[in-house]
Amino acid sequence: MPLAELFLELGAVILALAFVGRAAGRLGITPIPLYLIAGIGLGAFFQLGDAPEEFIHIGAEIGAVLLLFTLGLEYTSAELRDNLKANRSVGVLDLALNFTPGLLAGLVLGFSPLAAALLGGVTYLSSSGIASKVLSDLGRLGNRETPVILAVCVLEDVAMAVYLPVMAALLIGGTLAAVGVNLAVALAAFSLAFFLALKYGHVLSRVIHVQSNEGLLLSVFGLVLVVAGLADMLKVSAAIGAFLVGIALSGEVADRARHLIEPLRDLFAAVFFVFFGLQLDLGTLPGVLLPAVVLAVVTSLTKFYTGWYGAARAGVQTRGRVRAGATLIPRGEFSILIAGLGLGLAPTLGPLAAAYVLITAIVGPVLARFDAQIAPLLDRRMRLAGVPAAVVPTEVAPRPPLAETREPRTD
Amino acid sequence: MIRLDETPLPGVGVRHDFDGRFGKRVGVITHRDGRREIFVARRDDPDACAQSIVLSEEEAEAVADLLGGSTITRHVSKLTQDIEGLAMDWVPVSGLSPYAGHALGDTMMRTRTGASIVAVMREAQAIPAPGPDFPLQAGDTVVVVGTPNGVVRAARLLGGGE
After folding, report:
1. Cβ-Cβ contacts under 8 Å, B44 against chain A
2. What's the pTM?
3. Edge-to-edge, what's the strand order for the sheet holding B36-41?
4. pLDDT tens digits, residue range A212-221?
């Protein structure tokens, strides 16, 4: 009875995910690393039938596409343009500080240059999903450092939009000339589509607009899959095609599409993380633990500094800088997405990325809660080192003594 | 004039804030889905929010009305001072009023209080100079003009006191 088997096994997997998701909610952490662990456990201890396995595989591909689509929806083209102009220096610092450690670590671990470049991508991308969840859950949207955090996320997404098609072209491999042609085609197709999305997105939004939710859901989902398929045919990477559709949609259509696609995205993204975990071998995890910890420590520091620098530029004081740095530490969905590209290249890349995401996703939000404790330590360190404690802009009043004005913490 | 800063929050909406006279930063975040979030900064850490309140679009309108309403009342009280001896008031007709559902003439407003009904506001629409057979409804607001004393008595009459 293949149908019974399909439903039973899929249902069991999804119920298991519901269970870990609720546990994560109770603990106040993101469920992504737990989904990965669930996937690893599933692969190690159970043997899924062919039909459920196939569904999970296809579901995972759809999940990756939807993750990027909703990311594209998240930001309007104006926001992308403005941030590219205003926060370029933070973006460049972010890229230099956080891509390099992953790349170097990959080379030290004996990865091929391509796999090392993928590991660079893994360490580079902060999880905008985790960051925005932390910001809204802790009521920090009104904080002064928040625009900086969001700006870094936006710029990383733009960088990823260029990085993914390049990597996709390189991964096809072949002779040097063939790689060059693939690369040129990929970049040309991407730039053209990006230009069209920015320029004519509103036309697409008007055409696709319908009153009924059902009609809109079907048109958007269909369009995303078609463009993703086309992008894959051009070797640009399906996910980037979806990302561009997300950027092109704007206004009311984008708002409604976000609400309509969200449940689908949550379902398929969870399947995506499970599928990633399924492909990993439990036995390889202990071996990558040490490199993962070292990499997590180093890139937590570099990411922390990125946020610190950006917040300092915006005239934010020490505590806010600590929060900005710590909020950017978690890596998440996109690191896993990138690691997934290179599972065939280096056998340890997958487990390394999984352990790494697990560590950073837990450390970051915890650090961000202890800003009041960490900031005085850093202030003292800086004073000892002879660095002026804070470049406080004139319009910000000097901080009054803590003891008198301390208010009950609400976060 | 308060200097209001506008900061776009990518993926969230827009933030408007200003440094309040009492030494704390105050602001409103307009989420893209229409929700508003009012926040006030901490005194010991001006970069952080001490407290924030999320309002639905409807609630935000109500709060805006409340905040803006006080300026309207002030205008009205100024108006009554300007014309000596003449008062004007907006009297709501609640569901408890004995005249909800009755014709306007039944109130015998002018005879009893000396104040005149010059208009009835219904659903943001003004009906000027309504006749005596105009039916009042719960939810209407009656605009009354008269002596200050008469206006107070008119309000009491419509509320069911007299």
Report:
1. 399-400, 402, 405-407
2. 0.73
3. B5-9, B13-19, B25-31, B36-41, B49-55
4. 999 999 999 9
